[in-house]
Design goal:
The chain is an alpha/beta fold and 254 residues long. Helices cover 44% and strands 7% of the residues.
């Protein structure tokens, strides 16, 4: 006869969600004694406010932010049972983060670029995925785009060195059309907006820049951009490989 009460008693204990308890259960690398007081305080305050949509964590250089970020990620993974991403600015920092996770026995997998699917352990919320910002912030992101079929719904995203992310993200969504590399398309785009600069009295400056006589920056008048955005999209799509340009074109500061 099967003793069902015994089976219930032998069920695995719920996974811990308190970062300090998670760390207590993890194996420790040689030379590790305990968290710095700053690390412990940050984790305590984050855990109390973990349901907030956006949280900024600050630690001094050398303060052990990678371990803090990994413990936050593991806590979110255990509690939400949803995929969790850990993003870093460079490939080198990605490797360092994976190495740190391995030292503490934190399950983590590396984001792999290319056409293949996302790692099963990440998709099934069994391991943290570590990658660069460009793994997520990309016009053909493997995690899916707004409106696409079956986008990956992440429970949490840890942004390491978030202060350095702005230029990286902006670069991922910037399309550069230069006179040197694509002169015909460049000239066609300039022709679209030449009258708009005449209307605001900047035709001379515009023509100087287009001709290469000046290297300053002028922004397309917002109304002109709105009126001609479909024409811009048609020019950008024309004769381009479908993998080169994908999605909509947005202007945020013009």
């Amino acid at each position: 006869m099967v003793d069902l009460n015994a089976l219930r008693a032998n069920r695995a204990k719920p996974l811990p969600i308190d970062p300090h308890e998670i760390l207590r259960r993890l194996p420790k690398p040689a030379g590790f004694n305990d968290l710095y007081s700053s690390q412990a305080e940050v984790l305590q305050q984050w855990f109390a406010k973990r349901t907030a949509r956006d949280t900024v964590v600050k630690l001094h250089t050398g303060g052990g932010k990678t371990l803090v970020g990994l413990l936050m990620a593991q806590s979110s993974l255990n509690e939400l049972k949803q995929p969790v991403l850990y993003l870093a600015p460079t490939v080198q920092l990605v490797e360092q983060t994976l190495e740190r996770a391995a030292q503490f026995g934190i399950p983590a997998v590396k984001y792999e670029s290319g056409a293949g699917p996302l790692n099963d352990d990440f998709a099934n919320a069994k391991a943290i995925m570590v990658g660069t910002y460009k793994a997520l912030f990309h016009g053909r992101s493997k995690f899916g785009l707004e409106g696409s079929a079956n986008p990956v719904m992440a429970g949490a995203i840890i942004l390491d060195d978030a202060h350095s992310s702005f230029p990286l993200v902006r670069e991922s969504f910037t399309l550069d059309v230069s006179a040197r590399n694509d002169n015909e398309r460049y000239r066609a785009l300039c022709d679209l907006f030449r009258q708009a600069f005449r209307d605001v009295g900047k035709a001379g400056t515009f023509d100087d820049i287009v001709s290469g006589g000046e290297s300053s920056v002028v922004e397309v008048p917002y109304n002109a951009w709105r009126e001609r955005i479909q024409a811009v999209e048609q020019l950008l799509r024309q004769d381009l490989d479908p993998f080169t340009y994908h999605g909509r074109l947005f202007a945020t500061s013009f």
